[in-house]
Each structure stands twice: as C-alpha cells, then as structure tokens.
Amino acid sequence: MTNLDDVAAMQKMDPSGVLKSTEMFPDQCKQAWGESSIIKFPDKYKQVRNVVVCGMGGSRFTPKTIKELYWKKIKVPYEIVEGYSLPAYIGKDSLVVLSSFSGTTEEVITCGQEAIKRGAKITGVVQGGKVGEMLKAQNAPGYIFTPKYNPCGQPRIGGGYLLMGHLGLLYTLGLVDIEQKEIEEAIAFARTTGGKYVATVPAPENPAKQFAIFLKDKHPFIITSEFLRGFGNGFANQINETAKMISDYRYIPELNHHLMEGLKRPETLHENGVFIFFLSHCYSEPVKKRFAITKDVVEKQKVATHNVTLSGPDKLSQVLEAYTLSAFTTFYMAMLYDTDPVAIPWVDYFKTQLAKI
Fold first, then answer.
1. What letter does residue 265 receive in the DSSP assignment?
2. N- or C-end of the chain: fewer Cβ atoms within 10 A?
3. pLDDT tens for each residue of 175-222
4. The architecture CATH gives domain 195-336
5. How would CATH label the architecture of 17-178?
C-alpha cells in the first residue's frame, strides 16, 4: 500500500493487532514494572556475585537494553548469554535469569537446566511455558506475566514486559537503585510521544510514518552509543522481523576503528545504504564529537545519512521514546510492503526443520 493514512486498509493487513499492541507499549511497561518490582526474593538471592541473563531475539535485546542503560549502576557483573551454554564461572553464587516471552525457547531451557545442575540460583521473566514450569518446579521466584496489553502475542511487540520485567527484578533484588518517579515519568513521556505516531495522525504530521517512507527499500545501519546500544540491537531486530527487511546495528566509538574504511564497496551501498544516527543530549561529550565527525566521513564517501534526535529529559525516557518510534515505524514499513507485520514465516520454517533433526 502507498497510503499510510488509510487506517481501515492497515487494519485488514494487521489481523493479529500489531498496531494495537504497539499503542499499548506504555501500558505494558506500567504493568510489568508494577508487578515485577514488588516480587519478594529470599535473602540468598540478594547475595549473588554475578548475574547472567539467557535470552534470544526479542527476549534478548530487552535485557541487553537494561544492561547498556544501567551499566554504571548495576552492582554486580551482568552478562547476556545468547546460546546453549553458560560461562564457566556460573555456580552457587550466581543468579541465572531465564528470559523467554513464550517460555519455550530451546536455548533458554537448556541454559536453565545447566544452571540447576551447577547449583546456581534461577529466576525468570516469562509468560509461562516450559521455563515457567521449570521455575515452579524449583520453587524459584520470578516474573511470570500475563501479557494483557499485547494482543498480537509477538515477543518483540510486547517488549515493555521484558524491559520493565528485567528492570523490576534488578530493583527488587537490590542490584540497581532507581527512583519510582523516574519510572513513572519515563512511561508518561513514552505515552505522550506515542500520541504523535498513531495511525490517525496523518503522514505529513506523523514522524513515524515519514521515517517508514524514508527507510523503504534502503539498507539501514542503526548507529547508537552508550546507553542506547541495546536499543540499536532492538530496532535492527524489529526491522528484520516486522518489516522483513535487512538492517545492521553499529556502535560509536567502536565503529570508528574499522567500519568507515568499508564504505567504498559494494557500489550498491551508495545507492541504498543509509546511516541512521540516533542523537542524544545524554551522550558523553567525547561521543557527541564523534557522531559529528562520523557523519562527515560517511557523507564524504557518498553514503546517505539521517539524524533522529531524541528529546526525552533523561536516559530512560529516551530509551522508551526510541522504542516507541521504532515500533510504529517498522509497523508502517510492513504496511508499505503489503506485509503482515506479525508473520515470521522463515523463523517458523527454521524451527520446524530443526525439530525434525
């Protein structure tokens, strides 16, 4: 479709309700924080020396977002595992967090079984499934949620549950200090921001629709830094799964040490490549300088650039703002491609074939 203001047509292409779930992101965050931040853990859980989170896809980039956002505040080593096995150091003084929206993720289940064998403490952020059963069997506390604000059912569209679920666990475990006011104000800001992106706001006045139109048929490189690194991963995932389009995420300053030399080839990069710079007043001063120079280097090599300037008053507000924009944008991209935004046929095919082996 070409008309992103035809709400009725978009609803027909979105039978599962991705748009509705996207609009409910602040409600997801509010529910998840309210429920996860009051969970009671035994004292032994508050004496752990390290935390490992096991998750994949939409259940991975959300805790990664929390890690990057609060890396200066989380009081113990905090690592993300994206595979079938745990680091060698995991033992009785470790906390293993099983992150799986569905509760059926093969890699997460395997890591949970290994954690139990090693005598580690386990918890989780999960809707239910085998992971939920594992927590109950071990009498392990965790955040088992009912995603009432995610009617489409897709984990990446229910990111508020994973984001605030993980943050709530860290808070109630005493592993990070956060003010309740900070959470409430950030969610309120995301709600206000989302009002600019809803389907009833016409394209000329809707930044998310304009962004989607700009990104169509391009190869975006999502460029972030510092506290937004986890979000950059998340946005790239959303483009892949919701819009069915390729994307990459890169970080400043790390990309300054190699990537800029790779912009000469292939020639198609100069036709459809675009660097999307997410700018923030919350970045450190050295990083702010690097963004400007990086943009100059990219443009001098005839690769397109685009700036997204976040306006939230603090880091958490900007993370929620960025996720709100990216979710609406990728939904509208799916509409432009006449694609069901919830469908993931190749991921489903892969899982079916894997189960046969």
1. -
2. C
3. 999 999 999 999 999 999 999 999 999 999 999 999 999 999 999 999
4. 3-Layer(aba) Sandwich (3.40)
5. 3-Layer(aba) Sandwich (3.40)
